[in-house]
Amino acid sequence: MKPLSLNESGLPAQIWNSAAQLDNIPVINTHSLVPPGARAVVIAPHPGDEVVTCGGLLQLLSALGHPLQLLSITDGSASHPGSRQWSEKRLSVFRPQESVEALRRLGLPMHSLKWVRGGFTDNALLDQETQLTEFISRYLRPGDVVFSTWCEDGSADHEVVGRASAKAARQAGATYHDVPVWAWHWPERDQAQIPWHRARKLRLDTWTVARKSHATHAYASQLNGEPAIGIAPLLPKAILERMRLPYEIVFVD
Asked: Which strands form 145-149's sheet, in the order they lie side by side?
């Protein structure tokens, strides 16, 4: 995940907690989003993005017995540049362990879960879109339903992974859906930039929301920043609060 520049002491109105359009988004059910028998593929730019984007959906699909494929593009080890506490060497070991614990908290079947880690370097994906597309294409097949970060999400890594995922899905004959992450935390004045006509709401029950929130907190390295060297929490309070909403939103074509 990428840092979010928010003033935690006085958060401005953001799209996620102020846009009136959120109440009018059409509801979609799991079967309509991922047809029975179809494989769901979730592509995460950074460790933790799979939980933040689709933590609820992953639980619902797992309960229905859908085959799941997770692709983690980067290992997240460059998330704290200049930090002694969270050096790249330490994070290269710690971040995958956080992801294992987060997926366990979601209740996913770790013994059978298909999970591939790409090993790309975070914060350095802009010049690797072709390589990313080729990498992702290796793991997609016709009939898959693919989810990744929106290509206009406001984070360079999210956007390039979104573009590469969409292209790879088209080439493979798979269905692709965008999932916004940082866009929900844009100021309220930017809500017109959201493609509301493509938005669909997947409702989550109380237990699904609770497990998703619990899984998000598995990313201990992301919960606290280091103000002394200018590093903000990569999972700020606004994100953690949004994780408790009783729905997830995807953009469909």
From this structure: 114-120, 68-74, 40-44, 145-149, 175-179, 247-251, 199-203
Is residue 18 within 8 A of residue 251, CB to CB? The reply is no
Consecutive 10-residue averages of pLDDT for the chain (253 residues) = 48 90 97 96 94 96 95 88 84 89 95 91 89 97 98 95 98 98 96 98 98 96 84 89 97 94
Decide: residue 127, CB within 10 A, 0-12 exposed, 13-18 middle, 19+ buried: exposed
Q: Which residues contact 129 (CB under 8 A, 6 or more apart)?
A: 160, 163, 164
At the second CATH level, the architecture of 28-251 is 3-Layer(aba) Sandwich (3.40)
The position carrying tokens 């844009």 is 186
Query: What integer pLDDT is reported at residue 6 of this predicted model?
Result: 52
* Sign of the CA dihedral running 130, 1, 8, 208: positive
Query: In the prediction, which pLDDT does 253 show?
Result: 87
